Amino acid sequence: MIDEVGALMRAAARTVILPLYQRLAAGDVAEKAPGDVVTVADRRAEEFLADGLAKLLPGSIVVGEEAVAADGALLDLLADAGPVWLVDPLDGTANFAAGHGPFAVMVALLVGGVTRTGWILDLITDQLVVAEAGAGAYLNGVRITTDQDAPPLSALRGNVRSKYLPPAVRRAIDRRASALGEALPGTGCAGREYPDVVTGVQDFALFWRTLPWDHAAGVLFIHEAGGVARRLDGGAYLPTDHRPGLLVARNEGVWRRVYQGLVAPEAGLMTGAA
Fold it and tell me: Do the Cβ atoms of 122 and 212 come closer than 8 Å?
């Protein structure tokens, strides 16, 4: 089924999403929340994927980002004991709507609220990453593991995107980010950030919003490749836990360096206080 899901995601890209890339009309883009856009491509891709995934695994439940936007109660289904598909039909929608990348499709298969398999397809590069719990992480079919060296904080580079941070947290992060080798602004696409951490393009990524469709597949990919993803209080990430704050790093040593140098000094980061 792993290959079938990847093929379905590529079919959604080819037939639904990419034909609209840089061809969206004014009426094809809307704001579903302040600063959060949705396009006709998101909605059509979710319908395409939901139909295909339900057929691949009869009896399964599909929870998609756009369906949740219409009915937030659907998030409760993520804890269902049976198989649940979690779908981000177009991660990086703002990039897509602006006519540039990166943007991706992400799918995760959950059982009992725990991610068992995850897929991320980069629609610009056609790079497909797959992770299966206990079976490793794969990039275009080749198993991949993270680098395990841990340079000092001054040599590390990573996403410190401040867009969604509460003001007090943003100020604290900005003060300490100068200690990094390079504080990156982020790509606006979690589906690019996770593979970039695993492949060493960047050493870590700090997220404030932790919407499950943005992170379930990526966190499993990080873990199976040998990296670390934890909440800002040090706890484990679960798709059913919607608290803000997540630090992702390519290994334990890097996670601890970034956590101690960037995150731990501020109690507000731990509690989510603004």
Answer: no
Closest Cα to residue 98, out of 53, 39, 142, 45? 39
Distance CA 230, CA 111 (A): 20
CATH of domain 153-271: 3.40.190.80
Rounded to whole angstroms, the Cα distance separating 169 from 215 reads: 21
Tell me the CATH architecture of domain 2-143: 2-Layer Sandwich (3.30)
- CA 175 to chain centroid, in Å, comes to 26
Please give the structure tokens belonging to residue 237.
């990430």
Measured CA to CA in angstroms, residue 25 lies from 7, 117, 198, 269 at distances of 28, 35, 36, 40
**pLDDT tens track for 44-82:** 999 999 999 999 999 999 999 999 999 999 999 999 988
pTM of the model: 0.95
